Amino acid sequence: MSGTDEPEDDTGREPGRESEPGAGSERDSEEGHRHGLPELIAERRAKRERIAASDPSAFPHSFPGVESIAQVLAAYEHLQVGEETDERHRVAGRLAARRGSGKAAFLDLVDRSGKIQLHARLDVLGEERLKLITSLDLGDLIGVDGAAMRSRHGEVSLCVEGFQVLAKALRPPPDKHHGLTDVETRYRHRELDLIASVDSRQLFIDRARIISAIRAELDGDGFIEVETPVLQPLYGGAMARPFITHHNALDRDLYLRIATELYLKRLIVGGLERVYELGKDFRNEGVSHKHNPEFTMVEWYEAYADYEGAMARTEAIVRAAAAASGYAGELDFSAPWKRVGFVDAIREASGIDLAETTTAEALAACIGRVGLELKTEGFAWFQMADDLLSKCVEPNLEQPTFVVDYPKELSPLARERPDDSRIVERFEAFAAGMEIANGFSELIDPDEQRTRFREQDRIDTLTDGDAETMPHDEAFVQALEQGMPPTGGVGLGIDRLVMLLTGRDSIREVVLFPAMRS
Prior knowledge:
The protein is an alpha+beta fold.
């Protein structure tokens, strides 16, 4: 992603060195020659000490009463060119550019909401204070009190009447001519990316709005937000490899959760009826443009609903998130979304009829005959069926689509269809060639759940642990034995949803600090 950079500084800055975090560019030194980064840091550190010694107001512990720059700009759209006011405002942020010298100077101040021009004048500030503000470095943080005006060039500005130096940037900011173009640096040092790019800042503001909209939608429909364990004695709720850690005081291994499902369904048993959790899950698997080992999910469970109701709520929640982020792309999230059966989708995409290839041997042979490059040796039937969906169907599902009615072997926690015990009432939601949600009518029969877990154990034994299966959680089965009402449940991937709604192609773009190789 190439972000939209802040307005360019006009003080003769030279390209920065992105191999070192915080390397940017700087003015010519007082001695008239260019510095390397260590010398620039030393010079800035010395300047900080001089400011601290000469300015008692510098580096305060707080600067209360700050307004957002966007609010100030919006309040004075009506001003005419050259018009001044005596209406005072207090803003704070980072210096992004500076122009002028002598009796007046213009500086650009940036906060998370936008940029405003500061007009610093000798007749208002006096010689000493004007000299100080114009000697500050790009990246320094200041607080400003000033009166609103519109400059002769038509820009809403603040005439600086007072200011405080809030923090000294010892490292220069990323270069404004080129932004922060090194992808590794952007991901490893997201703070630099946020400093350099308006687009990056807006992305994570949009992400926060999307999450707030999802919470508001669920809260408004009577759901209760809950918190369940991240460290679990037994992982479950999905087919994935966990991270394992050790609790020293208890002297036992624990797992970072791969899903919140089983604990949330125990809360349905307990009578909370509508619950959700929005938080981190962890899966010890590969990294790709759509996979990060630590990712954000929202899971919700609704008593007295089935997968039809779960799909309708998924549509409504995604639409609310799209509206909150101002989405205006090509995906059409209006209901109803297209639906296609699991078996039909694979037949149409690959020519393979899963209804006629019901064993691992038959399915492997069929995959070989049609010439698909899929791994089959040592794979269970359900693994190959899942691969067919992922490789042949998923990439071609551009508009929001529900794939419904999955084979039971793929879905050990989902309830069977009344008319076909081989199929379960499960769906996955796809858009832009990517899965974004998974849900089903929840299996509530404890005896059937125990049988399904035992089948997972059998598959794990047959494949020597190579297949991703679900461990037998007897505590969950015993909870079901208390009686669980008919329930619909969904897991919606926040990171992937943000990718769709902000037009990003990689999950690393939408996670503040993604996992990186050392």
